[in-house]
Write a structure and sequence with these properties.
The chain has about 170 residues and is an alpha+beta fold. The chain has helices spanning about 1-20, 25-35, 45-55, 60-70, 110-115, 120-125, 140-145, 150-160; strands spanning about 75-80, 85-90, 95-100, 105-110, 135-140. It has 2 domains: about 1-90, Orthogonal Bundle (Arc Repressor Mutant, subunit A); about 95-170, Dna Ligase, domain 1 (2-Layer Sandwich). It is built from 8 helices and 5 strands, in the order H-H-H-H-E-E-E-E-H-H-E-H-H.
């Protein structure tokens, strides 16, 4: 079953490349195959390290430009981390993301509620919306279990004490 799904994804890859006039090179195939295998939203650097095992002479620039090209033709999505590096997502099915602000992990999730959200009228007046992705930000369970629970106010006080300040800033 997994091989059939991968074959279908590769078929979509070939079709998309042909539609957009992109050459189908061994490097592009390898980058796409490796991206489809993972669901952890890798960065260009992570993809470079992975693909380099198969193609030792490939450059970081080739991997990065290829990922950007794939995104520009709609093969993959770019997932912007909050203040972090650009990450990539090959899952083109409707889904949303949770971004952990501690470890940076991006977790896919599905929500019928979010899928059913209406586009506000003021947005419809200024733009045509093609897709909708909700990104929630917070602290994942793994990071919560590693850190004592502190409120934002307590964190501010602790930081101020480390900097020699005695008063709270608002």
């Amino acid at each position: 079953m997994q091989n059939k799904a991968r074959d279908e994804e590769l078929g979509c890859f070939f079709d998309c490349c042909h539609r957009h006039g992109l050459k189908i090179t061994p490097q592009r195939i390898a980058i796409y195959r490796e991206l489809v295998k993972t669901r952890n939203h890798p960065s260009a650097e992570e993809m470079y390290r992975t693909v380099r095992r198969l193609h030792p002479n490939i450059s970081y620039d080739t991997v990065n430009r290829t990922l950007q090209t794939f995104a520009s033709v709609g093969l993959i999505d770019v997932v912007e981390g909050i203040g972090g590096v650009r990450r990539f997502d090959s899952d083109r099915n409707p889904h949303h993301h949770f971004h952990c602000r501690i470890c940076g992990r991006i977790i896919d999730f599905h929500s019928r509620q979010f899928d059913a959200m209406e586009i506000p009228d003021h947005i419809r007046k200024i733009a045509s919306v093609d897709s909708k992705h909700i990104v929630l930000s917070g602290v994942c369970r793994r990071c919560q279990s590693k850190q004592p629970a502190l409120s934002c106010e307590k964190k501010i006080i602790i930081k101020e004490k480390h900097h020699g300040k005695n008063r709270r800033q608002h």
